[in-house]
Design goal:
The structure is a homotetramer. The first copy, chain A, is mainly α. The first copy, chain A, is about 65% helix and about 0% strand. Chains A and B meet through helix 6, helix 7, helix 9 and helix 10 of A and helix 6, helix 7, helix 9 and helix 10 of B. The structure holds a DNA duplex. Chains A, B, C, D: It holds the Pfam family TetR_N.
DNA sequence: GGGTAACCGAGACGGTACGTCAAGTCTTATT
DNA sequence: AATAAGACTTGACGTACCGTCTCGGTTACCC
């Protein structure tokens, strides 16, 4: 049975982990450009060839790290207190604060830069934040369908999430801080104006 | 008066134009990374020092070209037929089509990458598209205030525009094409559900 | 008795032959540098370790191939018509022609390069050509002792051969072709000026 | 007049010297293979590109150093006491001693290796030693024409020199030391047997 | 109208990183 | 135990650009 196949040593999991780890650390420290394959290799204690054997580019490494949850793991979950409006506000506040910090801003732009030359990174970035996992905006909005006049059953929650996240992205790119007015406005865009 | 002083020749406008021109062309041809100062200099028939004398980085060149209207000049104007819903739909369709073409997609990502390491580019990108000039989304929405139930006077048109443009950016990054359903959904996000 | 012992398969003669064969072919095709152990292994259908187990370096492989007569096998035999002068002339002519051809020249330099980092190759090169086998210069000169005034019994035939071969070597290194004058001169060096 | 030509900075003589110097030192220390362009660059305090800009290969650097007299400068001059036989013997003795020392042997083989992949090195090696400058074998033999029965006017001194030097090369390649018998034999090859 | 200062093109320089090749060692499964 | 396969670290290759720095030549203003 088992078609079997080849002999020889098997891919080293230790090397793989060390590479992802080193990449994530250096991404945070120095930003996406200035992130060098040689640097990752040397920090991970690994030969360059081992990186090139398994990944096509540095953006592919970032994509995999993202997939493994080594970046943006959990900080960005949307809370669920039953009150969508308040939850969205709190989440936007949290995200806005992260974007205000130098590291947060830098990380955000690094991820965007990575997405720029790797479709997977863009895809995953969108999935992780706007997507459908627990804690994602889309999920939270789905739960709130029907509870607000502007959010009737059938409302396009995915697209609303996308618009919300897109707005944050644009803020990050233009270095415009997210103040309370902007947050209120975005909540309005998502779920309609506050009742009275 | 003329506090000035200084002798010597004045900045060569011809060189400046040649540099911007070369940068714009090569940006379109080869993408933001792979855009090299040396390449721009040689294509423009200019010494490297002439570039470094006047710009701090290649992203600054792109920023200036953007400001001069040498990129994204006019294609992206929002029409005004009196019917916001129809106008937005048409505009999103047009933008979506641009993003579908290889050059359009590449240019979009190149600009995002440029924005990634230059605040001005991000700022101008936001202004040009979402901003307040004639043909910008925000302007069109302002004109429509009051004409739709979801767009009462005082609605946060700037933030709505931002969300719309952000959604497009996110699509560009994740290489998700903009189909008719998505367009309809985005219009709903912006100006509310179609009346019956 | 049969001290022996040891289980497991024994050195594979097939592998050994395949390796030597592959090495000789690739030496001729691509030259000594550009001759890679990995290339030999893959052409021979053999694991790298099998090569490293039995040889210390690629020059050792060449040395062994040389010993096996897989290189320079026979082309370079000195004829024996009874007339040393004529025989030497013919042989030098033949060698000179080989050195003129691209493959011949390349092979010669490859062997010199191999000799450069392996004493055995140097030794064998000297033995094979200048040495004492049948067809070697030294042997031919020994047979001619006494037949020429400059070649009395007791003449240092080994050293004369060495000088002759060395001259060829120097020609190969300096890419100086061996013309008829040079051949005549070398014959004079070896066996004295033509009578008359 | 003077057609002139281009502007711009001029080749740095300091860099050129540093590179040749570093190359010569490392050649002596580590041998021709193991001589790395990167090593030369770093020892010379120079960018790699500066080397590649002016030389095609490491053997070309060695060729130039040889031409500049930075290698084999003077040690190998043939003395001239009036007695060819004695002079050649002394010179062969000196060369033989150099070849016996580890550095000398290694240097000799390094030069041969360099000649192996660069025609100029081979050419210059031949010229410097066998050639026609003062102190060269050929020159010495020319001076001795007529003074020995085996060295009549018109004897092919260039070819004799070549044979002598070639014999030394062959000794170097095969790691055969040059003993007194061999020296005597070579002198015999060159100028005939000792008179009684 | 001679000085002098800033411009311009060209491009050499010391560097960093790229992506590739091969070396020699080690590991696995197979024979 | 020897093999074919091939992953591993290391180190060098030759190339592309970086940003800085000369060069020689050319304006334009200022005495």
């Amino acid at each position: 049975m088992a078609a079997s196949s080849r002999s020889g040593p098997v891919r080293s999991e230790a090397a793989r982990q060390a590479i992802l780890q080193a990449a994530v650390e250096m991404l945070a420290e120095r930003g996406y450009d200035h992130l060098a394959i040689e640097g990752i290799a040397s920090r991970a204690g690994v030969g360059k060839q081992t990186i090139y054997r398994w990944w096509k580019s540095k953006s592919a490494i970032i994509a995999e790290a993202l997939l493994e949850g080594m970046i943006l793991a959990e900080r960005l979950e949307v809370p669920d207190t039953g009150d969508v409006r308040r939850d969205l506000t709190a989440w936007l506040r949290a995200v806005g604060d992260v974007l205000l910090s130098p590291q947060g801003e830098s990380l955000a732009r690094s991820l965007i830069a990575a997405a720029t030359d790797n479709a997977d990174v863009g895809q995953r970035l969108r999935d992780v934040i706007a997507g459908s996992g627990s804690g994602a905006v889309s999920t939270r909005l789905t739960a709130a369908l029907g509870s607000e006049p502007h959010l009737p059953p059938g409302a396009p929650v995915d697209d609303i999430s996308e618009a919300l996240v897109g707005a944050l992205l644009l803020r990050a790119l233009s270095r415009t801080p997210l103040d309370d007015d902007a947050i209120a406005a975005l909540v309005t865009v998502a779920v309609g104006p506050p009742s009275l």
